[in-house]
Amino acid sequence: VQLVESGGGLVQTGGSLRLSCAGTGFTFDDFAVAWFRQAPGKEREGVTCISGREGSTYYSDRSVKGRFTISGDYATNTVYLQMNSLKPDDTAVYYCAANQGSCIGEFSSWGQGTQVTVSA
């Protein structure tokens, strides 16, 4: 399983970015894919997850609900994170991770991360 993130960058407060997580070595409909983030000096935190089997989505961080949307493309094995109304607190390295089965449990495969910086 390999995951490659892209789409990060520098954006002003209130702007939008769409992150992509392209997966190889597995089929999306057997896996769950999640987005995590780690801000400077803080622990990594889960942001959102999508279950390929069920199509269900989960948002574990209340601060992103209504602003971030996770989606998956079964044909290309790609998961997206649409981020709108970005705030400086969203500045972090964003990682995608995959887990065979559901969004619950340890995620065994990780991407290299993509930097998102939101300027005030």
First CA to last CA: what distance? 37 Å
Per DSSP, what share of the residues sits in E-state strands of 2 or more residues?
A: over 45%
Integer average pLDDT: 95
The major pleated sheet works out as: 7 strands, mixed
Low-confidence stretches: none
Structural classification: mainly beta
Helical stretch tally: 0
Question: In terms of quaternary structure, what is this?
Answer: single chain
The backbone outline, from C-alpha atoms, is globular
- Rg, rounded, reads 13 Å
Question: Fraction of residues in helices?
Answer: under 10%
Order of helices and strands: EEEEEEEEEEE
Give the tally of β-strands. 11
Describe this structure in words.
The protein is mainly β and 120 residues long. It has no helices and eleven strands. The chain is globular, with a radius of gyration of 13 Å.
Task: Explain the layout of strands and helices.
Layout: E1 2-6, E2 9-12, E3 17-24, E4 31-38, E5 45-51, E6 57-59, E7 68-73, E8 78-83, E9 92-100, E10 109-110, E11 114-119
Parallel strand pairs: 2-11
Antiparallel strand pairs: 1-3, 3-8, 4-5, 4-9, 5-6, 7-8, 9-10, 9-11
